[in-house]
Amino acid sequence: MPPLTRWAVRASLFYVLVGFTLGALLLAHKGVGVHPMVWRLLPLHREVLMLGWMAQMGIGVAYWVFPRIARRRGREAFAWLALLLLNGGVWLAGLAPALGLPGWVLVMGRGGEVGAVLAFAVHIAPRVRLPPPETLLPPSTG
Amino acid sequence: MPPLARWFVRSSLVYLGVSLGLWAVQGAAAVWALPAGMVALAPAALHLFFVGWATQMIMGVAFWMFPRERQRPFGSLPLAWATFGLLNLGLLMRLVGEPLHTLYPQGGWGWMLGASGVLQWLAGVGFVVNTWGRIRGR
After folding, report:
1. Do B124 and A20 touch (CB under 8 A)?
2. What are A106-118's pLDDT values in tens digits?
3. Distance between the two ends of chain A, CA-based, in angstroms?
4. Distance, in angstroms, between B25 CA and closest chain A CA?
5. Residues B101-120 pLDDT 10s
6. Annotated domain spans of chain A
7. Staple partner for A96: which of A28, A105, A126, B89, CB 3.0–4.6 Å?
8. pLDDT averaged over chain A?
9. Contact A40, A98 (CB under 8 A)
10. Alpha carbon distance A18, B114 (integer Å)
């Protein structure tokens, strides 16, 4: 695994822990009542799991396994930028409603998330292609 | 693909079918009167999709594809199987408990939601513990 993948996957594992913890708290509150303020954690639960866990795991693994260009992974800076923007965006967009922060914080968070998608698209687009012929398996003779 | 990865992936496909089926039935509520229990399934259906399908697919593929250790290629197998069992038990408990609790709030079904949350949380911890050591270079 390249360094970026290790960072992304470790971060996504951290987010799944945070997200499942929040989810367990929300579910327990729904069932037996914990504290009315718990509902304010719902947006953070969503951001952390959908983007921090799932999207980040997808980015990390795609960066690792997609075909390379002349044995290199291409514009790596854009992939790092994507991780930076995604993680910043998750926390801003997730914490803004939970902490009652001004609306522009939420907008900045969403902007970061969109920026992350665009940056990763710039990185990965040239790698969405057939792998080099020497890496393909020979046709089956069976 | 190791056996546990196949279980993860097959289960995730079942959850995908069930969650989409539930959404389709709930969509019919716009046309026909459905039993209240079907409508009360909406949050559980959402989680069958995101946890049962997406998360479980990620877990299965990670278990299969991540770099393997020499001594224990897949980490702790009992822990990995426990992750699978806890996640699915927690999800099914929610699928049953949430509509019951919504329909009969005084019926004493709320504990099922709390227990479901704990089981899924334990599954998440188990997955992280078992996967962390496999995140490495060559």
Report:
1. yes
2. 999 999 999 999 9
3. 33
4. 24
5. 999 999 999 999 999 999 99
6. 3-130
7. A105
8. 93
9. yes
10. 17
